Amino acid sequence: MLSYNFKYELKLLLRSRWIQLLSLILVLLFGFAALNGREKVVKRELDIEAARQEVRESDEMMLKLLDSVERELEVSASPWTIPTNPMAVGNYHPRVAAMDPQPMAFIATGQADLFTHYVKPTVAGDDFALNFTEMTSPVQLLFGSFDLAFVIVYLLPLIIIAFSYNVLSAEKERGTLRLLAAQPIGIPQWVLQKLGLRFFWLTVVVLGCLLVALLAIGISPLSLAGPLLLAGLILVYMLFWFALAFLVNIRVGSSAKNAVALLGLWVGFVLLVPSVLNQLGSTLYPIPSRTLMINEMRSLKAEMTEKQDEILDNFLRDHPEYALNDTAQSRGFYHRYMASQRLLKEELAPLVDAYEEQLQLQQEWIGRFKWISPAIAIQESLNRLAGNATDDYMRYRAQVVVFAGKWRDHLMPLLYNNRDFTSEDYTDLPQFAYVPNRSSSSAAVLSVLGLSIALILGGVLGYRQGSQKDTVLG
Q1: Which residues pair with 115 in a beta bridge?
Q2: Rounded to an integer, what distance in angstroms lies between the CA atom of residue 124 and that of residue 110?
Q3: What Rg, from alpha-carbon coordinates, does the chain have?
Q4: Per-position b or e across 322-361, b if 16+ CB within 10 A of its CB
Q5: What is the Cα–Cα distance from 28 to 20, expressed in whole angstroms?
Q6: pTM higher than 0.70 for the full model?
Q7: At residue 343, what are phi and psi to the nearest 5 degrees?
Q8: pLDDT (tens digit, 9 = 90+) per residue, 411-431?
Q9: Whole-angstrom Cα distance, residue 427 to residue 188?
Q10: Which residues of the chain have a pLDDT value below 50?
Q11: Where are the strands (E) in 131-262, listed by range?
């Protein structure tokens, strides 16, 4: 019976031109989405490389100035920009703290259209005020980015619905269900076979289109583990929607009702549940006002400006290693400013921690309930695979803050010990290296797979119970 269904289903799909139409649609969707994602990655790489090139050119000028000063030659530069001053190095020659794109970054934009991918921390800057956002078109934010994740999470379920909503109801409406009832196979098993065969053919088409898209952007599917994991996520997500179609075909009636039910479930799982969870997270764990933090920072700065001498004395008392060559005559603007900045950071730490804590609570809230919707679980897994998830940017931000402290702490001893920065010190300057997140998507895969199996079992058991009830009533 299975071999007959296989041949019959293939002939039916070929005659109705479903396979040809699906292949054309999916090739266009996957190809355009992959090219669009790759274009964004290339732009990101060019922006980062331009920033690094700017730093290299700045370093060349700095080394030339240092060489001229060390050879006691006259230089035509403002006194506060001459790099013998460690604060001039820290402010005018910062390093690039960049978040380089991961190999699979093209599959999902994630948070990449909200956050910048590089910053240049300075010694006089505020770690907590570092700007990690970038100017983005509000229209683009409203409609999102057309990437592979959008095609997989939003559009692929609609194709599956159109491909499977009337598997059983069409037989009823054509009057051929009575002939099928004479065959030695139950209705649930027959529907499972038909949907299984359609799942097989759609899998072949989807993986073929994915292969073409990867080759089109110059990525070998066998060179990375990412494409295999991407294929696994796609197949599990497709299985969920075919399992949902099986349940609806078994439990609901006509083709029109099946289509409405499946589209309603698509709206619920893909649009409604994520929006409700996000809104509830924002309501239950509101983020403190950033404007309030900035205002408090300004008021504290004004207050500390009036007490900079007292703050500097206390700072040097607490850090005697910075006071080896300290004299009243050697104290300048940066001596007082850097001491007040450290005290300002300590004073604002509770407010900044509250901001970060509420943001973390929002993410944990969504993480606890994301399994309600497979769309959320798969979207998050695709974002993580691309290296553009919220966790990745929070990790990047934390690493930048640590590097900013390292950059400042490296130059502060030179400042307080009144020691010039020399060309020999250049090679010892700290460098930033982003360490990406290596989290796994196995939990999402297992949860969606388990939910799919539960839907199939629920459909089979529900049909049997309904048949027994009809037999008893009859």
Answers
A1: 133
A2: 32
A3: 31
A4: bbeebeeeebeebbbbbbbbbbbeeebeebbeebbebbee
A5: 13
A6: yes
A7: -65, -40
A8: 888 887 888 899 899 999 999
A9: 71
A10: 135, 139, 141-142, 328-329, 468-474
A11: none
- What is the model's pLDDT at position 243? 94
- In 3D, which of 259, 240, 270 has the Cα closest to residue 375? 270
Give the containing element (helix H, strand E) for 26. helix 18-70
**Closest to 202 measured CA to CA, from 167, 168, 156:** 156
Residue appearing with tokens 């970060």: 356
Q: What is the pLDDT of residues 225-276, one digit of tens each?
A: 888 889 999 999 999 999 999 999 888 778 889 999 999 999 999 999 888 8
- Are 366 and 343 within 8 A, CB to CB? no
CA distance 46 to 62: 24
Amino acid at 358: Q
Residue 115 phi/psi, 5° resolution? -110, 145
What per-residue confidence (pLDDT) applies to 216?
A: 87
What was the pLDDT predicted at 217? 86
Which residues lie closer than 8 Å to 109 by C-beta, 6 or more apart? 37, 40, 144, 145, 147, 149, 386, 388
Cα separation, 409 vs 319, in Å, equals 12
